Amino acid sequence: PEVGAMAVSITRSRKEASSNDEALSGIPSISPSLPLLELATLAGGCFWGLELALQRCEGIEHTLVGYTQGGDSEVRPNYEQVSAGNTGHCEAVMVYFDPSKISYDEILKTAFLSRVDVTTVDGQGRDCGRQYRTGIYFHTSEQEKTARRLLEEEVATNPRYAGIAGVVAPTYVGKAALVATEVESAKAFWPAEGYHQRYLEKGGRFGQPQSAEKGNTDEIRCYG
């Protein structure tokens, strides 16, 4: 669906929404049009690449990039304000997924932990700043438990984290590495401007569309 239509469908079961200017609450709702789907919100640096990785996952039915975890849940931020670090928000992707096709556990492993360095503070790759921090923003207590468990397993078993804060992968079982990825309850989610939605699928910065086909394993060019 189009961005505006999607934002309305997500919020309408909670309160009537006339446009996508409304913030999307961290509390999941059961939309009449999405009765069997569950909600997940993730931040992994620039939201363009993470969205495409999530689009490619079988079972993820809708994606929406936006801004979340800011200090003000009443005033909608714009891209310039978030980029300047004035609002406390981070770039994030909210998805609706079909749990009969993909589990929350699989989403985190396939599209998040495979891409994100969970020990990097305030950024990923060439993108630096608080708006690019990483986070798993849970909507249920089960999601929180899953996120904390998988993060612990990741730093204990992934060789990329060997030597960080005493980690000796893959057999490390002592104190955890210095994990920078936030695990917090999801706050209000503000949809980003329309041109950010499905940015890489539509061509990105260089006008070269990247496939969002389910199961696609092509390397993601993060800026297009």
From TrEMBL:
Where does the record place the Peptide methionine sulphoxide reductase MsrA domain?
40-202
Q: Which InterPro entries match?
A: Met_Sox_Rdtase_MsrA_dom (IPR002569), Met_Sox_Rdtase_MsrA_sf (IPR036509)
Q: Report biased composition (Basic and acidic residues) as residue ranges.
A: 215-224
**Sequence segments annotated as region (Disordered):** 205-224
Judged by the first EC level, this protein's enzyme class is oxidoreductase
Which terms are listed as keywords in the entry? Answer: Oxidoreductase
Instruction: Name the EC number(s).
Output: 1.8.4.11
Residues annotated as coiled-coil are none
List the molecular function annotations (GO) for this entry: peptide-methionine (S)-S-oxide reductase activity
Q: Does the keyword Oxidoreductase apply?
A: yes
Give the family per the record: Belongs to the MsrA Met sulfoxide reductase family.
Return the protein name: peptide-methionine (S)-S-oxide reductase
